[in-house]
Amino acid sequence: MSVYITDLCINCDACIEECPATAIVSADESPLADGEYTYVKPEKCIECVDTTVPKCADVCPTEGCIVWDMPYIPDYDEYYIQGQEAGKYLIRTHKKKGLLSPANQPRPFRDSISLTQRAESMAVEV
Ligand code: SF4
Ligand code: SF4
């Protein structure tokens, strides 16, 4: 990731259309077995690096609902794989490329957000 949608989400789905990376799906389409909330696919999120603010957070009516997660880069491959094993994510497996984990498909991320802020799941501010 990326960003992560927490259980503060009210499933209004306003963020879905705004995402330039088509990384967000509604709870009904969540790949998680028990997905109750709108879900961000970490293997797709590009943290809106080309815009001033993350577009999902910009339209979200629920303060603090969307938080920062770790960068989707090889250093955090194990982090995301463990998260997948814990049921937090379900990373897509590509027919030819295999699991699209950070080592296999790194994504752009914002340098301006520190690793500490990410580890503390700081809310995405806009
Ligand atoms: S930060 Fe940007 S790319 Fe990531 S889920 Fe939100 S809108 Fe999509
Ligand atoms: S805009 Fe916010 S509250 Fe609405 S679905 Fe997205 S994350 Fe949830």
List keywords for this structure.
6 strands, iron-sulfur cluster binding, two-stranded antiparallel sheet, alpha+beta, binds iron/sulfur cluster, single chain, Alpha-Beta Plaits, two-stranded antiparallel ribbon, 126 residues, 4Fe4S_Fe-S-bd, 3 helices
Notes on the protein architecture:
The protein has 126 residues and is an alpha+beta fold. The chain has a single domain (1-126), classed as Alpha-Beta Plaits. Helix content is 15%, strand content 11%. It contains 3 helices and 6 strands; from the N terminus they run βββαβαββα. It has helices at residues 55-59, 77-85, 115-119, and strands at residues 3-5, 24-25, 39-40, 66-68, 93-94, 98-99. The strands form 3 sheets. Strands 1-4 form a two-stranded antiparallel sheet. Strand 5 and strand 6 (98-99) form a beta hairpin. The longest helix is centred in the middle third of the chain and has 9 residues, at 77-85. The radius of gyration is 13 Å and the shape is globular. One iron/sulfur cluster (SF4) binds next to loops. It comes from Sulfurimonas marina. Keywords: Iron, Iron-sulfur, Metal-binding. Residues 1-29, 36-71 form the 4Fe-4S ferredoxin-type domain.
